[in-house]
Amino acid sequence: MRMPALFLIVIAWHSDVHAQPDTDKHHDCLNKPHQAQVFLSDNKKSAYHWLEKKQRNIYGEDAKPLTLEELISNLEKRPPRMDRGDVRGMLCETAGDIVLPTRYESIGPYLSLKRASDLIRAGLAKTGDVAPDVLLGTLPIKETNAETHKRGKEYVILTNHQILNTIYSLTLIANRTAFFIPAEETGAIAAISTNSDTVKSRLEKNPELLTSYHKSIVAFSNKTPHPILETTDILETFILSTQIDGMHRFIVGHEYAHILLDHVSRTKRNFDIPTAKGGSESISMLGYDWSQEIAADLTSLSLMQLSAMEDRDKNEELALLGHALFTYSAVLYLVLTDALSSEVNRCTIGKTGSYSNTPEAIRKSIVDDVIDQLSRGNSLKLSEQHATVLACRASSSHPPQWLRAEILIRTIDQAFEEGGVSEALEVKIARSIIINAYELERLRLEAVQEAVASP
Fold first, then answer.
1. In sequence order, what are the beta bridge partners of 285?
2. Angle at which helices 87-94 and 68-77 pack, to 10 degrees?
3. Kind and range of the H or E element at 136?
4. I need a surface site. Which of 278, 302, 412, 429 has the fewest CB within 10 A?
5. Which residues, in sequence order, are bridge partners of residue 100?
6. Measuring CA to CA, which residue among 142, 156, 64, 144 is closest to residue 107?
7. What is the largest CA-CA distance in the chain?
8. Could you tell me if 353 and 385 are in contact, meaning their C-beta atoms sit under 8 angstroms apart?
9. Interior CA angle at 454 toward 453 and 455, to 5°?
10. The pLDDT of residue 414 is above 90
């Protein structure tokens, strides 16, 4: 399949994005009769039947997540949250129509990724392409990337069960390091401070940002509860929800891309996941090379844009700010997970080869070399010098997250430049958050590593 080049949807700001979500409506779900919950895993021929058995062994017989009715009940008892919108009402009204994959699947992450998958499929349908049949699930695979397991003719996209909550927190923290100046009348952003000292001054005035960042990464590595953060105003909610939506589509779209680009005949990798009773479950995942990983990233960007066309059909106007945040969210996801995968989980020799510890000139040389090899259709082969710089990251199944991020940001920058809006305030906002996320990683790198080494 040949995917279209990344394109821009540039439309005027739409004031409705600042409309206050309706969180005051009461939904008496507890007194409403519900049909018995349906699980796709009850079909013994489905890969979901296999997944439920794996989840039961890994999580433990008694470790089932909240049922749909329990989730609705809990939401009924809690005060409305700005970034949640009217989720209670949505779940209440659609509870009878929601079909869950397994009895051990976390409802929130599943529904988020299912929505992303559905939008990507709808975007593909507009091009006349047939989307592959995929299943979605979560497992504690200690990976920041999604992985795909093939069972028979079915593909199961598996994500780390903690990654979505962790990324939510890290993204909100990164957003809060930027200094936005809202317009008095409309509430839209009128200006942004781009001074190089901005992030440092923000952190000095708000030291809890670094603390929350530190705790979030350590919690992800040690599999402990992460800090619970919530948005405080409508603008912050709009920015965060747009970014998270884009990240979900990038994660799922990346795995769709591997299937669409016929990368699925490669060798397999085995993941050994500890079980509740002390043993381990070995699960095979499809393995790819670096060239295929980068190709899947670029194709996922195009899939994101196709899915955004579906949004445009429902929402006739998309703001440039929303489009910039949405598109750059793929880069922001890779930058934030660089702090998770590269600095914490992947390399035992610490910061060698990380973004923060690799001089800018060498980083540029590595990115230039990789792009040059790919443009000539060559399989990627690192020079001895670059392999030495990247150390253990050079032997990983995935390219370093920062390398993937640098390749994507060049692609996106070029698209916005060709669209004539690269200097627009809205685009600068999206890019400034990425720069600040790198700064957060640099500032907390050694402290995070020490905490992970001695939990």
1. 269
2. 150
3. strand 134-139
4. 278
5. 39
6. 64
7. 67
8. no
9. 110
10. yes
Distance CA 215, CA 339 (A): 12
Q: Using alpha carbons only, what angle is made at residue 304 by residues 302 and 306, rounded to the nearest 5 degrees?
A: 70
Query: 3-state DSSP call for residue 195?
Result: coil
**CB neighbour burial string for 119-130, b if at least 16 within 10 angstroms, e if fewer:** bbbbbbeeeeee
Find, among 445, 441, 440, 380, the residue nearest to 407 by Cα.
Answer: 380
* Mean pLDDT, range 243-263, rounded to an integer: 92
Non-local (6+) Cβ contacts of 294 within 8 A are 370, 374, 380, 399, 404, 407
Whole-angstrom Cα distance, residue 147 to residue 288?
10
Per DSSP, the three-state class of 281 is strand
Give per-residue pLDDT as tens, 193-210: 555 466 677 777 778 888
First to last CA, the chain: 46
Q: What is residue 73's predicted lDDT score, i.e. its pLDDT?
A: 66
Quickly state the pLDDT bin for 328 (edges 50, 70, 90). very high
H or E stretch including 52?
helix 47-59
Full-model pTM: 0.85
192's CB contacts (< 8 A; 6+ apart) are: 178, 179, 180, 181, 425, 428, 429, 432
